[in-house]
Task: inverse folding
């Protein structure tokens, strides 16, 4: 057996997040256009006496190390399906913001799944891996796939999308996190008594991705969870305003937040937006990267 396996797995930004009404199962139907970006966690798995999880990197103290961690859940489910003893040490090297709306926990689940499959030689098919990902959470399948995709259902049913170029992004990290379930509950509260239309992907947005047209993409990005995130974390409005004032083509909350995302015209513009955000005093730190990025991969 291989002694250790490391998988690198990307963060995501939602260039469109259209949210439907709450379903009987408590989830919401979504039209969720994912774009993987070049911020990565690395998950390393090696044989151990028992299943355990460790974590390093920014805000590692906020990551659960018990069996609620998606990386641990991924290992347990793959082991259950293939009759393997899940006695492994999972180490997560964090670089994706924790509780930041960029699917860092989901990325760790996908990374652990691929790493354990490789370590154990279980030979799970792509379809089985995606099925386990969907069981783990709505954003986990995309972390395995990467690139760009449209997620429907609760976001786990994916259709790969064409991307015709590179998009330059700046991400402003907030002073604290936001709970995704709390943001959805606030969405429900804010829309109580409102007829919510069926979520559909914007054709204009999909075309702008396919053309690699940043200006056109900026005109079509949207996030139905943004009002709820701003309601729970009003100071994010100042960060968004600072990014817009610095020349960002578009500014939005990333997923459920509180990370804010700024689309720039090119790499030079992204650096200028990042400098302005750092100087604004409206965020904890700033990251510059681009997308699309590849999905989970053994390194």
Result:
């Amino acid at each position: 057996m291989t002694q250790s396996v490391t998988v690198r797995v990307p963060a995501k930004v939602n260039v469109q997040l259209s949210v439907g009404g709450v379903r009987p199962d408590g989830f919401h139907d979504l039209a969720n256009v994912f774009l993987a970006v070049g911020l990565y966690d690395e998950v390393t798995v090696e044989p151990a006496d028992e299943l355990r999880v460790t974590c390093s990197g920014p805000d590692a103290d906020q990551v659960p190390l018990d069996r609620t961690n998606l990386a641990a859940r991924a290992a347990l489910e793959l082991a259950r399906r293939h009759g393997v003893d899940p006695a492994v040490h999972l180490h997560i090297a964090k670089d994706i913001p924790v509780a930041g709306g960029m699917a860092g926990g989901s990325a760790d689940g996908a990374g652990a799944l691929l790493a354990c499959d490789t370590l154990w030689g279980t030979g799970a098919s792509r379809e089985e891996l995606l099925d386990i990902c969907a069981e783990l959470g709505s954003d986990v399948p995309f972390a395995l796939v990467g690139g760009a995709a449209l997620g429907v259902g609760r976001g786990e049913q994916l259709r790969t999308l064409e991307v015709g170029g590179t998009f330059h992004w700046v991400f402003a990290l907030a002073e604290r996190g936001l709970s995704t379930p709390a943001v959805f509950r606030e969405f429900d509260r804010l829309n109580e008594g409102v007829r919510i239309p069926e979520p559909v992907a914007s054709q204009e947005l999909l075309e702008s991705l396919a053309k690699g047209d940043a200006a056109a993409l900026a005109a079509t990005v949207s996030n139905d969870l943004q009002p709820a995130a701003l309601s729970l974390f009003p100071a994010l409005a100042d960060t968004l305003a600072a990014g817009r004032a610095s020349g960002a083509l578009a500014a939005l909350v990333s997923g459920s937040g509180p990370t804010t995302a700024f689309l720039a015209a090119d790499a030079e513009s992204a650096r200028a937006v990042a400098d302005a955000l750092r100087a604004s005093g409206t965020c904890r730190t700033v990251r510059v990267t681009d997308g699309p990025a590849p999905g989970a991969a053994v390194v």
About this structure: The first strand starts at residue 5 and ends at 22.
